[in-house]
Amino acid sequence: MTAMTTNASPDSSPVAGSSVASSSTVYRNLPAEKLFLGTGLENVTRRKPKRGSDSVFISGPLAGGEIRFSGEFDAAGEEVRQQLLSVLGFSARSKVEKMLGFSGGLNHGIWFLSGTCGESGSDYEELVLKLVRCHRIADNVPTEAENLVKVHREHSSISKDEILAFPIKIFSCFDGPTKKHDLIVMRKVPGERLAEVICRKFYNNQLTLLDAIFEKLGATLASFHERYGKQHGDFQPSNIFYDDATDVVYFIDIGGMGLPTSDTDVELWRAFSRSDDPSGGRLQPDIARRACRSLSKRLWPCLTLAWNWGAGPVSLNASG
């Protein structure tokens, strides 16, 4: 199985799964009763723990229970590792490795769990473990875990959607009597970030292949919006994975899915893609022209994505 990558906290986001929302100022202007009315957040219990921390306690199908640790949280340390392997049904030889380098501004840490599991002990699986904050940044801004519980309640089949890095379990992490974090467990998605795919294929002059990838991306985004009626919330090249072997597009870092934002997915793509353009601006108009030539009306989102890569309006009859 697969999934992944990145969460929404003001002090720490992307991987192949994470984020809570990029515009917290928008949420602060929304009354809580309007934000959560009819959303199913009755599945989330909020209570005031001792010392006034504002932790959110998760219940429902996604709840994985409690993980106990002392000091600094480390999923690869024996104290936490043994608890995870036991609850998730992995063999004792399974590996937990910390992700090196930048793990996303909104995450507190990323680890990869790989090994055998299942009743026969012969099924190999790779999971992503993402540590995120468990406190709200404002009274009417849900934590990433809260929002994922809400989305799951509204769309119970989403956990089986193979193109999404949706959580299979969320653990509450306690240091003594105090809840300090949420640990989100997801299947790891195959492939690599679209930002890297675009860069490599552009410099290898594989522009025809880029045409096909952008068409696939547009169709996948359109299907996502139609299926769930929600925005991804952090739609950018680093949160999109593409698997060359299977020609499948995956979306990760969906912790802010459906939350009110000031930007649509396409507008977010526009903002982020300008800084991610590997060609220093030369790639933008070329992708837009080539995408326009091969697009059909059903794949209109792909055209919009290409347009918003920074090229501006382009005629459907553009050549070159």
In short, what is this structure?
The chain has 320 residues and is α+β, with helices and mostly antiparallel strands. The protein contains 9 helices and 11 strands. A hairpin with a 4-residue loop joins strand 10 and strand 11.
Explain what this protein looks like in three dimensions.
- The chain is of the alpha+beta class.
- It contains 9 helices and 11 strands.
- The chain has 2 domains: 24-187, no CATH class; 192-311, Transferase(Phosphotransferase), domain 1.
- The protein has helices at 24-28, 32-36, 78-88, 144-154, 194-203, 207-228, 265-276, 283-294, 300-311, and strands at 44-46, 56-58, 63-69, 95-98, 109-117, 123-133, 167-175, 178-187, 192-193, 240-243, 248-251.
- The strands form 3 sheets. It has a 6-stranded mixed beta sheet with strand order 3-7-8-6-5-4, sandwiched between helices. It has a 3-stranded antiparallel beta sheet with strand order 9-10-11.
- A hairpin with a 2-residue loop joins strand 7 and strand 8.
- Helix 6 packs across helix 8 (283-294) and helix 6 crosses helix 9 (300-311).
- The protein is globular.
- Mean pLDDT is 74; it is low at 1-53, 278-304 and 306-320.
Beta-sheet strand percentage?
15-25%
Morphology: globular
The low-confidence parts are: 1-53, 278-304, 306-320
What is the end-to-end distance? 41 Å
- The gyration radius over C-alpha positions equals 20 Å
Q: Describe the sheet with the most strands.
A: 6 strands, mixed
Number of helices: 9
Helical amount? 25-40%
Total strand count, please? 11
Structural class: alpha+beta
Summed up, the domain count is 2
As laid out across the biggest beta sheet, the strand order is: 3-7-8-6-5-4
Mean pLDDT: 74
Topology as a string of helices (H) and strands (E): HHEEEHEEEHEEEHHEEHHH
